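Re: Re: token formats

Sure, here are both.
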Amino acid sequence: MSGLNVLVYSGPGVSLNGRAYLLRTLRQFLGHRYAIIPIGADTLRAEPWETKAVLLVMPGGRDMPYMAELNGAVNTRIRAWVAGGGRYLGICAGGYYGSARCEFEPGTDKQVVGDRELAFFPGTCVGCAYEGFNYKSEEGARAVEATVERSAFGVAESLWRDDPMKIRIHYNGGGYFVPRTDDGSARVLVRYPDDVTDPRDRTQRIKGAAAVVSCAVGRGIAVLSGLHVEYAWDFLAASSYTQPHNRGLVALMRAHDVFRRRLVGAIFLHMGLSPDPDAMSDCADATHSMRAPVVTPVFLAPARATGVAAVASAMYALTAMATHRGECSVDGVSDMVLQDAEDIHVVTAQAGDRRRVSASYERSVLTPDDIGPVSATEEMPESRHHSMLVLCANDALPDEHETPRFDMRAAIKYMRETRAHTAGSWLMYADTTRSTQTFLERNARLASHLPDGTVHVATMQLNGRGRGRNAWISPVGCLQFTMLIRHTQRKQAPVVMLQYIMSLAIVEAVTSLPGYDNLPLRLKWPNDLYALHVPVSDSDDSTESAPAFAKIGGILVNSSCSRGEFTLLFGCGINVANRLPTTSINSVIRDYNDAHATRLSTIPVERMLALATAKFEELYRTFLVYGFEPLLQAYYRRWLHSDQVVTLADRDYERAQVVGISATDGQLQVRSLGSPRTVYSLQPDGNSFDMLRGLISRKLQ
């Protein structure tokens, strides 16, 4: 299977604002299908990133620090990965770095001249293409009128629509590309205008200079750009551009923004990626190039909880915590705020209204995140986030106009049809949120008053979290939820085993249905969900022709403990209904029907939520009384590792065979092949299991 991670180098030398702009552009174009992950040199040096990566991006900045961090073994790995079918995108400094030779401002105090190890472009990147560059300001920047060589991209002509051949693109310090020989391994995608000058002699103009080049590298590809194609006009402050050559920069970029976005999409298509078509469409909103997504209200309603007194008590407790009067009262709505890690505006939905929350009040509370320059780490800004919690009784549930991508009424109906009491007792739903896990984890006051078993669902997560430092992709059709469970520690029911119960519950929720037992759904230690992927050439990125197991979900469990009681947040992501980016449960069902002439029904996301939470409660009740031992055989029946031979990276690459897992602490048991009496125990939270290579290594924190 092809990788899903877009790795963005974020080590020393990277421009902070440039990195922030790049991350947002990558998320705009690729975030629907790929995980955009900032990484440092340690990851490239020590982790097996190659198996999961689909693209490595080197941003603008200074390439000398890149050399200091990456020269030698890391560059050797990068080049081997690209030659084996990987993709490299180098922008500005990343373009210099990806060339065989860099000649930056020769003969000046800024001079950087020398060979480069990656050498994807068989020639020299010469810069600056324009004089006046200053590391500390934008005085050398300009909106150059670049010529797009459409025929070189190999994309459908219809992509370009009626766009002009010459478009305005941001430039600041990049080089132009001069090949040593014309061997056909590099092609020009975009050219500078004819006002580029030779930095060794500024009286000499360079006509038709290459601004963006595409380089064939073995079975892979590298695209190097001297232009900042990732810069959108609304990232930039007009007040920063006061020189005669750039005074109108922002206005020019704004006028050409849709053309720039189609160019960026064409570059990704040329590289064999699948950009979001919406990112390349004509933008109806003239005020922003790429308006940041807006979080939507969180609706909270009783699901399996049906007791009138219990429901009323829970509603009252949440309302009573909102004691601060906010500043967003409109349309007669009393703006009451629960002050937690963020300001949570608590509203009680009114029955009979078409909208449970007035549109004007919603807009006044939930505004887009700032889309200007952000910090180097893109952490939470200093200003407080705002969210909205809408309390809904059974007769005041939102309709399809307020939750068009998830049917809360259907979900509650399914949950009441399946036998459970605690798990899924209350349902929280937001169409768009930053992260269901983060929302409950950060807002501890709110979480402490939510009923046990509350499950928080979202259709889109802006910052979905995976295990370790992984991100979680949020394609439409993916069921993403966090369930809150309060667990009293018992000797026979250790908390560490609960992640295994949740992963087993999700698989068993489907395979225990009549006729579904033989569906190829599996468990990967410690907490990933896999399914048999049948490649379809027109709908995925796979280079394989034979079926293979691919990841369709994962579990992330966070816990806190007070007075012997654990508060657990089970974060789950399950691709239920979208064949992309790997496969899905419903794709597996369709493939099974085709292969066995059966008519098994696909599973709506809302029903999958009900099945998974009910099965979790069933297994959890067994676990509380008898421990994990009675569930071991069911777990082994569904996992991928029976008798698998693995390599232990932290034990001098010793070979071992998987024996099983411990029913008391969840550690993976493996027997040494060289010394059969030796059995190693591997902790689930301290090791990474690379399925493709059968490699178990220590996970870097």
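Second one below.
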Amino acid sequence: MTVSARQDVPVPPRSERPTTYKSNLEEYEREGDVRLPFLLSYREVKLLGIAGVGFFLDAYDLFIINPVATMLQYRLYGGHSLPPGLEGFIKAGANIGSVIGQFAFGYSADYFGRKAVYGKELMLIIFATIGSLCDPTGALSPSGALIWLGVWRIILGIGIGGDYPMSASVATDRANLRRRGTLLSYIFANQGWGSFVGSLATIIVLLCYKHTMEVDGKTSKVDGVWRILVGLSLVPAFGTLYQRLTLPESTRFTEARKGNAPIADEESIEELKKKANADPGVSEKSVSSPAHSDGTQTPPSEAESSAEDEHATAARKAAALADAKKNHFREFFHYFSEWRHLKILLGTCGCWFLLDIAFYGINLNQNVVLQQIGFDGSDGSPWHRLFKIGIGNLIVTALGFVPGYYATILTIEKLGRKWIQIQGFLMAALFLGILAGKFHSLNTASFVVCFAFLQFFFNFGANTTTYCYPAEVFPTRFRASAHGMSAACGKAGAIISALAFNSLSKKIGTPHVLWIFFGCCVAGAVLTLLLPEVRDRDPDVIYAEEQREHERTRR
């Protein structure tokens, strides 16, 4: 429609027109549907590199703590087992810290803004990693060295936990609605690569130390192996730190934190839905124009007046921002005081909690799996044992861990999050039931196949979608807080599973523990029914509709 044609249409006085509310979504560049969802643009790849490193480090840390704990047996205890309490402390330390980080960084990201907080969690990860590397194993008692490592791993976990709501919010704020789930899945898939690189790095570093440990018999040099493995995580952390610290605030979040402004009803909610298809602009910079388009300079009087207007506008924006911060906590509780919102939060928290009981119960105790396939390192020299465990972990990771993530990436925009999550829970329950029922009778090949399918459906299922759901289902104003709460509930399940698995296995047997995991997966599938399908669903538009409903009821 041309401007002249638009002017011919009579416009009723503002007071006579109905008032509606919109979510103030940014005016993104519109894109067509020609490109397939899993084919990323340059900007999306750049955003993936910035946001994905946290999940790479999370999985890398989750993997290497098991071989590191085995190496510390030879360095501190002459090959004997670590004290059970201290072993559990260093293995669960990062998960304990993650709960703190997910709550703290999630709320901070909504309150202070993404730009003010993003990058600080990565600085904390770097700081804690350096602290872990400085563990004075030769100067402290064996118990003291383990306590040192455990404390720094709690701090490390705070940073890793903080990355969950931060990266999810930063990516979703900039995502095109039609490819939002794919982008989030790509980011979360870095977990698979973190585990794979961790197992590969263990094998390579051990090969470098083979002559020293195997031929020269200097087993104590394993102290250098674990420090190198821990230190390698600093490479991707330093590589993306600058990008995170300089990433500008997204326009979507800037507009969302101002609240929902009343506007003339020139656009319907349907039109706002179309505007939600955003081009993920990683670089969002304001451009100033001191001169006119014809090249003439602005007169001094006009420039002074313009400067005064800018100062007044900046003052108004600062006042509005301060008011938004002041009211955020109250608005957060008001939003979730409604059952339609609270049940969704309970669904995201509960599903993630139940998933991580089973997922981390299996993956933090892979020694059970390695024993079944003959790669538990139960015999041979110290180097041979460690190397065999590394090979076994590489096999387990390559079989089902990485492929499951990419099955989700390819199908999430077609099948939807809800379908993938329910079938993932149910299929994981199926293979957990097979493993539990036939635990002592399955041959090695059958066990490997069942375990590979179990890992596949964890990742082509709830392990990915429980991360995507809270990032996509809640409006921008509360997204990071709700995501942090959901992720913290997941880590709480991981802590329970990590601390209880070994003791329960000894009391009731591993098959019975697997039946508990089976029940968690079935319960997760049922709880998913509380959640809506979020494919092509813009929570900011829905929030705007709800605000309009509230306004109508007040009249």
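The first strand starts at residue 19 and ends at 21. Residues 300-336 form the longest helix (37 residues).
- S.
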